[in-house]
What does this fold into?
Amino acid sequence: MRADLHIHTHHSDGSFPPERLIELAEEQRLDYLAITDHDCFASYEAASRAIALRGLALKLIPAAEFTAMLDGEEIHVLGYFKEFPSTRIQQYAGRAQAERRSRVVRALENLAKIGVEASIDDIQAHPGCQSLTQLHLAFLLIEKKYASSVAEARRVYLTDRVLPKFNMQAKEVVETITGEGGVAVWAHPEAENFDRNLKLLIKSGLSGVEVLNLRRQNKASRQFVKAARKNKLVTTLGSDWHGHTHPYGYDQQLEGEKILPAFLERLFH
It folds into this structure.
């Protein structure tokens, strides 16, 4: 079972269109793919058409990645759905997109106070982009010669003093996803405060934990797997590939025989 349940396109902060991701999925012989753009499902229709045109057996799972606050910390929650999301979820995603844009505007105002001359019109986002992220700001700082890398942009400029906190709370995000029949999965958790945060999320109705994220971790965390099984949560995995720094390459760690069956059972039954 070959799967990638966490990947991005240019409809949020990835580099490539959904059609290209379908090409890559075919090349890597994936069985399941979930495009998890930030706060939007804009890739789903084009990706579905590409699968049909190629006559693939690839199963495309409607999904998105939402950002929220949990006890003062920023976390990400992946929402997976059996079918294309309801109007309620679409409206909720629209709220999240609006909050992201407002956050970027306020961040640019804060950057101006420390001498950075840039406006939202300077951001080089794809015309189809629906969610502006911190990564767009980092690329803007690089283009304007204030930083030489994403890491430097984040370390020097995109600090807590510049980036406003998100308003959406984790409880609301999880309840909105599960309330519409979706599976809510905690994306790329950190080991620090993991047990405390997991307890809080479980109280909100969390469905599962992403136990392998190739962008953030080198291997599946035994701690995450053990905790998920103990609490009867499903487990997922993904590359979290954005396409900016390296080509997409399927990793054997993404074989999902041991990690995905419970997730697929929960989602499709």
